[in-house]
Specification:
The protein has about 110 residues and is of the alpha+beta class. The protein has helices at about 10-20, 25-40, 90-95, and strands spanning about 45-50, 55-60, 65-75, 75, 105. It has one domain (about 5-110).
Length: about 110
């Protein structure tokens, strides 16, 4: 499976994410943007969620212990902004301090923190 990311059992995750994005954009854009977001959700960066009516993606940078925000569309992700640690050294602290209930979508692995 060279050149692709295998999300295996997370098919439901891709469907849920695409559905949420499609509520704010076209279905075609939702499929492409979902793929870009999930491909970026590995290794150094972890997808936390989407804000501003699915206009911005929020990632946790595991190396710098902070948040990076970017725009995204069917062509891919925009440039990730500078990592903002804002005094947070743990993603749990960040998520508890944010109003994630107001986000358009929160990754299921973090919903329990709400």
């Amino acid at each position: 499976m060279s050149g692709t990311t295998n999300h295996g059992a997370l098919t439901h995750l891709a469907g849920e994410l695409a559905w949420t994005i499609a509520e704010h954009r076209t279905a075609t854009d939702a499929i492409a943007t979902t793929r870009h977001l999930l491909d970026a959700d590995e290794g150094r960066r972890e997808l936390l969620g989407l804000t501003e009516c699915c206009e911005r993606a929020v990632f946790w940078d595991n190396m710098l212990h902070g948040v990076a925000v970017t725009t995204f569309d069917a062509a891919g992700l925009g440039e990730l902004g500078a990592v903002d640690t804002d005094g947070h050294r743990r993603k749990g602290d960040y998520l508890r301090s944010e109003a994630v209930d107001g986000w358009a979508w929160v990754h299921p692995r973090h919903r329990w923190r709400r």
